[in-house]
Amino acid sequence: MTRAFVGLGSNLGERDAHIRRAVEELGKLPRTKVERVSSLYDTAPVGEVEQPRFLNAVACVETELTAGELLWNLLLVEQRLGRVRAKVKKWGPRSIDLDLLFFGDSVIDEPTLKVPHPEAHLRAFVLAPLAELDPEFVHPVLGETIAAILNGLPKESGVHKGGRLWT
User: Fold this and answer.
1) What's the whole-model pTM score?
2) pLDDT, tens digit, for every residue of 46-83?
3) Residue 56: how many CB atoms within 10 A of its CB?
4) Is 56:125 a contact under the CB 8 Å cutoff?
5) Could you give the CA distance from residue 72 to residue 54 in angstroms, rounded to a whole number?
6) Which of 39, 97, 129, 143 has its CA 20 to 30 A from that of 61?
7) Does residue 164 carry a catalytic annotation?
8) How confident is the model at residue 4 (pLDDT cuts 50, 70, 90)?
9) Given 15, 21, 42, 83, which residue is catalytic?
10) Has 105 been annotated as catalytic?
11) 109 is an active site residue
12) Is-cis flag, bond preceding 116, omega within 30?
């Protein structure tokens, strides 16, 4: 079994319902068990596209799938939940977004699969919920704990948990 972390995000429609449904779908994946899910974090969008705020969370799963199989299943879950990956502006609005953030201590650099997620260490909306689940998890490339990486980010992250700014 490999422990993997999956990022969840939604900024269209019933954001919390989309994330709850995605977690339910993760629990139905073959040879995969959802261990824990972080709190929901209200976050500012990233990128140049004008769009609504996101709700983000991170799920910790234990899986016998390969990283490629897990990613494929995440894309299928997105599809089942109505996500259309159109060839439009990157980082646009979406009903659900599932990202494979970490797959154990694996480092994978393939055209269609990059693990750890190449931008995870730069995003408070990934690091804050991940730190809630496992602050001592060590980034396999940077060699630092999630807590240390998060503490190194600027405090004006735009990430809110429970209605207050995360600091």
Assistant:
1) 0.91
2) 776 788 999 999 999 999 999 999 999 999 999 899 87
3) 28
4) yes
5) 23
6) 143
7) no
8) very high
9) 83
10) no
11) no
12) yes
